[in-house]
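[job 4417] fold queue: 2 targets
>>> target A
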Amino acid sequence: MFSRRPATSAAARVLIEDPQRSDAALAELAQVGSTTITSVRARLEQVGVIPHIPVADRVARPRPRQDSRTAAAIATGCTTPRQIADAANVSMQAAWRAWRKLNPVQQDVAAATDSISVAKMPRMYEDTAAATDSITVSATATCGQCGQPFSVSTRNSRRRYCTPRCADAAAAAQGHAPKPRLADPDHPFPQIQSLPPPPDWSRGTCAHVPASQQTWWTSSDPVLREAAAHLCSTCPILAECAQFSLALPVTDPAVYAGMSQAERLRRKREERRLAAMERPSPTRRLRALAAGKLRVMALRIIPVTFAQARAFVAAFHRHHAPPAGAVFSLGVADERGVLRGVATVGRPTNRISDDGLTAEVTRACTDGTANACSMLYAASWRAAKALGYTCAITYTQDGESGSSLRAAGWRQVRQSLPRERKGRELRNWSPSPGDDVIKTLWAAGDGLATRNGRVTGHLCGGCASKFIPGRADARYCSPRCRQRAYRRRVRASLTC
C-alpha cells in the first residue's frame, strides 16, 4: 500500500510526461489508484501545468489481441466454412464470416453451394438441387451507365444499374422520362433553408484564451458561463457572432456573443414582437388585398419524410429537440418550393391517452411564415381522422397563446402544472427544457381518454355542435355561444 505523498508524486510525474493517456493506463504505469490519477489531473489542469483533455480524446490502454482460432484453421489449409468450423471448434456463423473475409464476392451458385453444408438445410428439401435453388447468392455485375462493378443478388439478376441516379441518367440518354421519385413529380421537393456562414472565430476573444478557459462557453456551470459572457463583451466580432447565434436552434446550450440559451430565446421573441407591431392591421391588409397592393404567400401541404422533418425541427424549433419517432409527417411549402414548416404525428406521450385511437402532434415547427402553423394543425387532424383516429391532441407551453390551434378548430381541454418528483424518481430523472412549465392540453375530434374516463364530448347549447369540455359542467363551446343562449332566454321571457 502506497502512502499518499509518494503516490501523488508518482501520479504527477506520469501525468506531466504524457497527459494524453487515459487514467487507467497512467494508474497502471505509476502503480497507483485511478482515483489518485483523477484528482492529481484536476489539480494540474486547474493550475495550468497540463492542458484539459476530454475523456473521449484520451488514449486508452491497448488491449492485447488474441489469436483468432478461425485464422489459425485457415492457415492450416481449411477452405470451406464446414472445415473451418470443425477445425477451430466455432459456430457455423463464425466460420462463415471468416470465410467471407477471404472470399468477398461469390462468382456463381455452384461456388456457394460447395461452401455450404447441405446437412444444415431443412428437411423439406429432398435433394441438393432444391436446396441450392433457395439460396440467395451475390454476384458481380457492371453498371450500364458508369461502368463500375457492383454487387447483385441472384433474386435480382435483372438489375443493370448500380444506383437510381445511373438509371435516371440512362433513361434520359435514351429519351425516356425518368421514373418519378415523389408523390407529386410536377413539384420538386422543397429544400430546407441553410444556416448563415459562421464568423471568423480566429478573430474572436474565445480563440485567444488559455486552454483551460476554452470550455467555459460550453460548460454546464453557470459561473463559468457568466465568465465567458463577460469575456465576450470586448470581442471584436460581437455583432457577427450575435447575428449567427440568433439563426441557430435554441436547443444549443452554448454561450454566443455573451448570450445564454434563455437570453437568445428572449431576444428572438422580442424581435418577433417588434416585427408584429410593424405589420399593418388586419383592416389595412384587407384593403391592400382588395386594391391589389398586397400579395398573400400561397402555401400548400406536402408530404415529407421523418428524417427531413427531424432536420427541420433541429434547425428551427425554439425549445424542443427532434422527436424519436412518428406515425407520419407532413410539411407546408410556399409557391417557390421552400419548406416553411413541418409537423410530426405519433403516439400520445401520456400512457392513459395512448388507447390506439388517439394521435398526438408531437412537433409543429415553422420558420415564422403566417398561417403555416394553423395549416399544419388542420392537416394533421384531417390525416389522422382519415387513418381511423377518433381524437388528436397536442400540448402548448405557458406563454403560447394557441391562436393557431383555435384557427384550426382545436379546443382547449385543461392545464397541467409541472410534475413534482421526489425520491428515486428524482434521482433517475434527467430534466428537459419543457418539464418545469405549465402545459395546456388541446384536442380535436371526439373520444379523448383521460384519467377520469373517456371524454366523449358535449352538445353545445348555443350552436348544437359537439365539443370537448374543459370542465364537467360546461354547456357551451365558447363565450359567444353562451351569450347567444342568454339572449334567446331573455327574449323568450319577454315574449311570455
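>>> target B
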Amino acid sequence: MGQHPGLNPRDNSGSQCILREGQCHLDSGRNAFSQAREIISDKQHTIREALENINKVIERSASLTTGADETFSLLRQNLLVSAQNLERASENLNRFLEILAEQPSQLILGDAPPRREMDPEFQ
C-alpha cells in the first residue's frame, strides 16, 4: 500500500531517484520564485521612479499654473488701465470735436478773442 508503482521497497536506488527528481523540481521552483522576486523588485523600482516623476510633473504644472495666473492678472490690470486711458482720450477728442464744430475759427486763431465793449456812440 502507498507504494509507488514499479518501486521495490527494498531497492534504495528508486527512492534516491525520486528524491533527486523532487529536489530538481524544488530547485526549479525556487529558481522561478527567485526570478519572480527579481522581476517584482525591478518593477517596484520602476514604479517608484515613475511615481516620483509624476510628482515632479505635478509640482511643475502647479508652478506653471501659478505663474500663468499671475501673468494673466497683470495682463488684466494693464488692459484695464489701457482701456481707461482710451476712454479718457476718446472723451477729450469728442470735446475737442464739439468745440471745433461750434467754433471752427479756434483751429486757426486759438481762443476766441475777448468780447469788446462797443462804444455807445457807435451803436
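[job 4417] complete. Note on B: DSSP finds two helices and no strands in the chain.
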